[in-house]
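Extended Data, panel c. Modelled sequence:
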Amino acid sequence: MVMAGVLAGCGSDDDGGTLTAYVYGDDAVKIQEAAVKEFNKTSKVKVKLIPVPGTEYVNKLRSAMGSPSAPDIFYNWGAGSIKPYRDAGQLVDLTSAVKNDAVLKDGFLPSIVEAGSLDGKIYGVPMRGMQPVMLFYNKTLFAENKVEVPKTWEDLQKAITTFKSKGITPFALGGSDKWPELMWMEYLLDRIGGPDVFRKIQNGDRSAWGDPAVLKAAQTVRQLVDDGAFGKNFNSVDYGNGGAPTLLNKGKAAMHLMGSWEYSTQLGKAPKFAEEDLGWANFPTVAGGVGDPADVVGNPTNYWSINSRTKYKDEAIAFLKTMASKSYAQALVDNGDVPTTSNAASMLSGSPNPQFATDQYEMVQKAPSFTLSWDQALESKYATPLLTQISKLFAGKSTPEQFVAAMKAVK
């Protein structure tokens, strides 16, 4: 399938009016398949969708983009994931197309479009559901122990003390996977220093790792670990195989900081718990911090970008416009996703859990800033050492000061 896509890519002259589109090949790809089928009914230039298995996607895309027959359109995570292609002049700058077209300009939540941009320029159009990181909790444990859902850092510390005294791990954490630990640093830096600190890092200012807010966030992480917030064995707990979610649904952990997909994960593993006992909230405020308490971190969504070498730029943009349609948004809702379109709010009553979907949508809609997950926002040459250093910080193998120094030194 991948070879078929490469052979039919935008470098060939005999494609008979075909736009090839690489997409991440998972369960949700059926929604993109339906959208392509609908678009092709009326367009002279046809879109050919090439699903690439998830584990192979990044490498397959990279090798295809370096060949004469790269895809015309491709799925990505925005920001750092597309920066190498932008730097190589391989992306269509969509800024004017979006700003001059009412469908694209008004079709999506602004914070989502901004999160996928680079240096203020738009290179991607949202094409899947939003995935903010949320504070999930076990409602029964909170009620039994008379604990309020934490809104401030002081509330959170009280909750940690109470749950520990009852032999309950305050927070489930899949430390063996590393990336769940990153969510703590992302929110803490936002709450303490605001979104601009990481924005500078994302834009290539390595010295911004030396911002006092980064050190304070790292120190707060160490304090949480030392206070037993994650228990003693979090380094051997995973997320991918269900370790951390199981701690929450079995009542062994009270809370879990995780992407919004935690709801569907719990629905699959423990449906009764998901429907009756799973609660969710915003990340708490931090005293003295300058970040807006409504700010969100996570994966805003996935995006379609267009190869600058395509012969059918106008038709590619026309296809991207269909992502703002009501029928496409409805298909996402029916699949349990929360669309990033401006018109999504009215559709969420048909979601598998309307309350969760609505809360999630409003959380993102009201967010002054939506910071993309650091490991997606940064190029892999920075993201890989970042995950290593985060893991060392949580495991007590490095100090907050050593974490800062190590990240400033990454070239």
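The longest strand covers residues 18-25. This feature is highlighted in the accompanying rendering.
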